[in-house]
Amino acid sequence: MNAQKTTDTSDKIKGSIKEAIGKLVGDPKVEAEGKSQQKLPKSDAKPKTTSKP
To answer: Among residues 11, 23, 42, 46, which one has the fewest Cβ atoms lying within 10 Å of its Cβ?
Structure first.
């Protein structure tokens, strides 16, 4: 499993946990954040730029 796929999987797991916590405590904002985190493809994330002197 490559690093990109591992990161995508971990983000989906984090999103599902966040969604479940939102449902449990009755916070629709946290629940929505969890749902959106599960759907976000990692390719939409901004790439980290490193500046070399």
So the answer is: 46
